[in-house]
What we know:
The chain is an alpha+beta fold and 220 residues long. The protein has one domain (36-214). It has 6 helices and 6 strands, in the order βαβββααββααα. Strands 1, 2, 3, 4, 5 and 6 form a 6-stranded antiparallel β-sheet that branches. α3 (126-136) packs across α4, α3 crosses α6 and α4 (160-180) runs antiparallel to α5.
Amino acid sequence: MEKTTWALTLGTPFLAAMLLVGCGGSTSSNNTSQETNTVTDTEEGVDSSAPVNVTQSYIPYLRTNHANYKEHGSNQVPAPVKDANNRSINWTIAANTEEGAVILFKHIHYMKNQLKADQNPRGWDKLFLMEAYMKYNKYYTTNIERSGTNVVVSKNANTACAYEVISAHSDAVSGDFFAQGNIMVNYSAKAEAILASSACNDVRTSLTNYIASRRKRRGR
Length: 220
């Protein structure tokens, strides 16, 4: 629906990634401009240049317009570029309008901040709870860049478990969200498999406790 970067520097490789699906909320068009946006999420959790007034989810707009986003340079559904050795995930997403790019940029920034603030927009889904745990505890960083109609998202994990979580999330965004506009799939079974893997040995107990304390029934 996290390599993650908001601000396009076209001299660097066009990368892409993101945490998209997840939260309801009203949407408005807002004014757009030719400016370049950049948001960097450091290990200390500091934003270098956050967009103004990102106070809502734009998921209704994105769900309706999901087909208007393509992989940069092609007519294909946006797909993450994964590097397991470096524990990174990158996306380069092209919107069909600048307004669409701004809305995507703002939504990803909004969701990132929700997770950093220890919020759980999809509290019924264990995968999103695991990602919230990882973001809040600084197990991965997110960088988002926008220039014109292009958005680059880059996520970098510092543990194998965190990488598996953000990798699974990127698959969900590419396969279900961008391909179908589907935000109702529950990825808890995938999360349970990741949690049971050796990659998460060191954090399994704390992750299990976090999920148990935060999980909500669907629709609440």
